[in-house]
Amino acid sequence: MGRTLILLGLMSLFGLTACSSVKPQYYTLGTPELSSIASRPSSIKSLGVARIRLPSLLDRKGMVLRQDKFSVEVSEQYQWAGVLREEFNESLVSGLQAGLPQTRLQVAPWTLEQTPDYYLVVTVLAFEGAPQAQAGLRGSWQLLQGSSNRLIKAGTMNFTRPVQGKDVKDVVQAQNELMGDLVRQVIAALP
After folding, report:
1. Position 57 pLDDT exceeds 90
2. Higher confidence at residue 41 or residue 165?
């Protein structure tokens, strides 16, 4: 009798937990909109994109939503469809390919024989936002020569975009626009 009551109690507890959990919603960045720049011919035949560097706070599936100046929420309900590092990398590469259609884009790692003419290293310090507030992208990037690893150019990013709506999808839309800002900045800096 005691075992039956314990078993029923545990089943009830698991049932209540399952009913109260919220189904996650998944988001992806996609290719940034680059309508404000025409695809430009480039003398660069190949461009590599090294692994994106993210702080551990961002390198997860749960979206980081800014609460106020000193606090963030890592959401269990709102998640990236993949790990943010991969989402960011895919969005960056697809944006660069859209803006540089004649350039072969490569993603690290590459073999010695396939070393690109130049490669891009991106370090993200912040990539967050909140509905009806701002979305921000802060960090730095470096363009290096592929064969010598010599620094060609470096830049910082401190982009913000207003989040027009009250939903998390509006935050993701603003973050996608931030990716476009980064792509435009990198393309403008290419030799």
Report:
1. no
2. 165
